[in-house]
């Protein structure tokens, strides 16, 4: 079992972050964190497939085209519901074929949903909805990627890279919101990544990013006064803009992190420390 070797570790450091010639795919890639991750990967030189469900096909295509115009690389939008294993397999294969001429290098399993219910009140359906997207969907995405990467490597091609968007909710219990299903799904994602990183070391690196509070639509549903509670617990004292995360994803996607697998990169303004 050998982790992919760095092509040229002695080269000047900024070259380690280049994704030129690579093909990437991001689930939940048309808004929030996923959109900024897609933009970051494209800015680093990768062709990017952005997957979406709720955005209209017209808006998704125009988002892809805007990133492509500003970065000069090909960016294409694909509709894909990550809760359908079949749809995920088909979409990843199609994106590899259409964008990467058969090769896929980087897959970011980022799609996720949140809901707030007390532990005593969850219906089976409410609990299952969270697990279906955040854990099962992330697994289907990684598995489809892993199958492509293994085949690629057996055929003499490049090794792959999976990055999960987990959460600090994998590590701590957020308050005042009650979201046991979300927190449990994210903790499972972190352990899933650790397991796959060991199993797949021959053909892929697998890592997680665990963001703290990021200013996206996901947080907008919460009452304003909750922010004061959060800020009192975050040493950084503010929310993070989604674009502040893109460097971390480029780091994990690139050879700058060539010896890193099975890691969980926590980016939370110090929230998990006190
Ligand atoms: P968002 O709500 O803007 O983005 C979520 C994305 O997931 C959307 O593009 C949505 O269409 C997609 N999605 C949802 N269900 C889907 C499905 N069944 N199939 C395919 N795509 C689906 O929220 P945000 O914040 O950008 O979330 C991205 C990821 O970051 C999620 O996994 C979330 O749990 C995670 N996260 C967010 C934090 C935050 O404070 N905003 C903190 C830590 C983690």
- Quickly give the CATH architecture: 3-Layer(aba) Sandwich
Largest sheet: 7 strands, parallel
Number of separate strands = 7
Overall average pLDDT: 97
CATH homologous superfamily descriptor: NAD(P)-binding Rossmann-like Domain
| Parts with pLDDT < 50 across at least 5 consecutive residues | none
At the third CATH level, what is the topology name?
A: Rossmann fold
Instruction: Figure out the total of helices.
Output: 8
How are the strands of the biggest sheet laid out side by side?
A: 3-2-1-4-5-6-7
Query: Considering DSSP H and I runs of 4 or more, what fraction of the residues is helical?
Result: 40-55%
Estimate nothing, just give the exact number of structural domains. Answer: 1
β-strand amount: 5-15%
Radius of gyration: 18 Å
Morphology call: globular
Associated small molecules: 1,4-dihydronicotinamide adenine dinucleotide
Order of helices and strands: EHEHEHEHEHEHHHE
Instruction: Identify the CATH class.
Output: Alpha Beta
Describe, in plain words, how this protein is organized in 3D:
The chain is built from 8 helices and 7 strands; from the N terminus they run E-H-E-H-E-H-E-H-E-H-E-H-H-H-E. It is an alpha/beta fold. The mean pLDDT is 97. Helix 3 packs parallel to helix 4 (124-154). The chain has one domain (20-265): Rossmann fold (3-Layer(aba) Sandwich). Residues 27-28, 30-34, 52-54, 81-83, 110-113, 133, 137, 165, 167, 211, 213-214, 216-219 line the site of 1,4-dihydronicotinamide adenine dinucleotide (NAI). This is Putative NADP-dependent mannitol dehydrogenase. GO terms for molecular function: mannitol 2-dehydrogenase (NADP+) activity; oxidoreductase activity, acting on NAD(P)H, oxygen as acceptor. One of its GO terms (biological process) is mannitol metabolic process. It comes from Lachnellula suecica.
């Amino acid at each position: 079992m050998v982790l992919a070797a760095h092509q040229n570790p002695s080269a000047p450091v900024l070259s380690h972050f280049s994704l030129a010639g690579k093909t990437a795919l991001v689930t939940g890639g048309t808004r929030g964190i996923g959109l900024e991750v897609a933009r970051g990967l494209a800015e680093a030189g990768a062709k990017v497939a952005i997957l979406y469900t709720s955005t209209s096909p017209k808006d998704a295509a125009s988002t892809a085209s805007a990133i492509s115009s500003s970065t000069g690389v090909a960016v294409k939008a694909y509709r894909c519901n990550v809760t359908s294993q079949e749809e995920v397999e088909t979409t990843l294969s199609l994106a590899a074929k259409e964008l990467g001429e058969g090769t896929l290098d980087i897959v970011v399993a980022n799609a996720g949903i949140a809901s707030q219910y007390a532990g005593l009140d969850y219906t089976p359906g409410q609990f299952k909805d969270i697990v279906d997207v955040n854990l099962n969907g992330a697994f289907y995405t990684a598995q489809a990627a892993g199958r492509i990467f293994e085949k690629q490597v057996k055929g003499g091609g490049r090794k792959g890279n999976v990055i999960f968007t987990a959460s600090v909710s994998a590590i701590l219990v957020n308050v005042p919101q009650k979201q046991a299903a979300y927190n449990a799904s994210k903790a499972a994602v972190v352990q899933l990544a650790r397991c796959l990183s060991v199993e797949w070391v021959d053909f892929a690196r697998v890592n997680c990013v665990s963001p703290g509070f990021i200013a996206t639509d996901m947080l907008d549903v919460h009452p304003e006064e909750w922010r004061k509670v959060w800020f009192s617990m975050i040493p950084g004292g503010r929310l993070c803009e989604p674009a502040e995360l893109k460097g971390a994803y480029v780091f994990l996607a690139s050879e700058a992190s060539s010896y890193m697998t099975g890691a969980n990169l926590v980016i939370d303004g110090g929230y998990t420390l006190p």
